[in-house]
Amino acid sequence: MPRGAFLLAVVMAAASILAPAPAAAQAIDWLASQSGIDLPADPGSSRLDGMGGLRIVVPDEARELNLHDYGRIASGLLWDGDYRRWDFWASDLSQVNDRTDDSGLRTRNRDDLLEIGGRMSWRPNDQRVLGGEYVFDQLEQSIERGDRTKSRGPRWGIFGAQRVGKLAIGGSVRLTSDNEDLSSDDVFSIRHRSDGARFVGSLAYRASSFELGLQAESQTNTITGISREEARFHEDEYTWKRPVQVYSGAFVWHATERLAGALRARGFTLDGSQKVAVSWSDRMPGNPGGGPEPGQGEALQLLTGTFSEEADGVEMGTRWELLLLDWMRVAVEAEQGEKSDEVVEGDNFKGSRRALSTEDSWTRAGGGAGAEWMDGRMRFGVEGWMLRNEHKQTSVIGAESETTSRILEMRTGLEFFIEQNLAIRAGYNRSAEDSDLDAPRTLGIGDGVTFGLGYYPRGGIYAIDAAVQHRMVEPDYEGDPASEGSSTVVTLAARLLL
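The structure corresponding to this sequence follows.
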């Protein structure tokens, strides 16, 4: 991976401190991953976004220590949330990476991700929860080889859970689709469109002091592609299958009224392949179908494989919270994971992915303390985080490379209710981000600021939260090669309780 692209991925990983992402295999997910972006699985917390991106030391309804929020177990929703509620959210991410190579040549990559969504959950009683959601994503990319892409499409589905004694049985069905607009000087560039479905089944058990959940997920993903030049002398149709299986488990223990902890684990496998139907027009000069003059040959078609791919991974994590004093809490969180991905190319035609073998492993750990005063009108938190990632890859010609990156970050955030129903928020981040510990001129220093507002009329029946986050990473050295990265995220969330 080019150093500039790798730094861009580091910038975005720092922005989220590698928030665990679902194993998704749609075209838009794959395109986003090339720039280090993970499409969010849920709307997150706009409130905490405005407080410096704090995640564990300030209590928040979107990040509670339970099976649903932390363990990501679908049936845990039965014991999490309000009686009836509507949620709406919107977010806009813009990130830019400027790279200058040894010769002084400057290039720029830009990514813009827009998401708009809504979710409804309804509890007719304490034995059942039902709901549905609709999310629209749009990703625009301008990458260094000159291509410009815009991928957009919806995700929608239904979910529910039913209590049976101390058990909760739940699941969901979600459909996804997206379509890519592509502008490129390369006539062999592939424009993608994908359709998929996700089926989730889960089982949860709840006792007086602990919760236990298990979940299985199956995804069917079909990505189609078109490659053709303007004169239509050739047209290639690609079919890319990416089935995914995901297995999860979580355990939450409420040891005392002041101490709670949780464990979670997740594993996934992906086994995909792509085929192409290649066609030559009878008008194509030099048509393999023969004929001395254009139009005298025959239109030919050929069906062949372009590549196969196999990926698997596992991640495990834990989080603990302690109410040290009535006004102060401390929390720690850690996660470790690994992932491997291998692409094997066919002999004849190239497809959406090139031959490459990669292995990634990461360790993420953090902790901090939060406090509140003035009967909860003022809250303050500070967190420290560390992320270490090891990346190994083997190219199509057998060349091997290994990169170890590290991010150290401090986050601070403040919330203050200037009125009973109006809160203002602010935060600051400072980070040291080294995209290659073994190479010179790879250290960047990051600074980020956040601002937010919260409005809660009628005792919180309505809630509106908004936040703006801006980060910059600049090289901590002189000379070239050098990379600079920046990102701005604007989020808006609204909630209605019925």
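The longest strand covers residues 300-325.
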